[in-house]
Amino acid sequence: MTLSFEDFPPGHFGTFGPRRVTREEVLAFAAEFDPQPMHLDEEAASRSMLKGLSASGWHLCSITMRMMFDGFIGRTASLGSPGVNELRWLAPLRPGDDITLDVEVAEARVSRSRPETGIVTFKAVARNAAGLQLCEWMSPIIVRRRDSAAGQAG
Questions:
Q1: Predicted confidence (pLDDT) per residue in 13-38, tens digit
Q2: Which of 35, 55, 97, 104 is most buried, judged by most C-beta within 10 A?
């Protein structure tokens, strides 16, 4: 079933995960996309403000985006996103952490300029197994309304 705008009333939407993060993937992502010492080198990381090897914040964002896609965006009549409104990294993601993602619909409104669509703003909070918040972000997506999605999905 394809999810339409009407399927996203404000409030808690779902919890996704857990997803384990391995040391190998932390190092591989950092080597390719964010080669700062605290993401690549155990000794340098221990001397950093993070006090140990940690994943790049961009790696954490990528993981949470995939969790959202697998959880619901992949079956949503989404037309894309205009961007991220807010992003905060709150604690380091460590190799071996299991991530759980809580997703809330912060706002859902019909688009004024394109009334056949709605704008759904999600708040996502990633936590490790101990419940420590790792990051939170707010991002809108543009979603077809149910009455306009028929015959246009795909």
A1: 999 999 999 999 999 999 999 999 99
A2: 55
